[in-house]
Design brief:
Helix content is about 45%, strand content about 15%. It is built from two helices and three strands, in the order αβββα. β1 and β2 form a beta hairpin. The protein is rod-shaped and about 65 Å long. The relative contact order is 0.19.
Length: about 110
Amino acid sequence: MNMMDMFGKMKEVQSRMKDAQENLSAITETGEAGAGLVKVTVNGLKNVLKIDIDPDLIKPDDREMLQDLIVAATNKALSNVETKAREQLRQATEGLLPNIPGLNLDGLMQ
């Protein structure tokens, strides 16, 4: 592969990555904790979109447990959406770059 072809491919990769990153806001995942008592929905940009809390959990005595469940559900949702986002970015650049050992495009997702 000559240098001009490589630069052309890199421009195409940049364009596809930009498009894929713009589409990350459309990817959503929901994490649950406490057997579904707390649900947190996030998008591929790692923004929390929604928190659902079962009304039975909203009691002053259960405040610490509720906080723990929100954290657990948020972490689960973020983990799930990261997997989806990585897959979308992988698909967006599939076939554009040669298989180069050690080349990691994960930093482009942030």
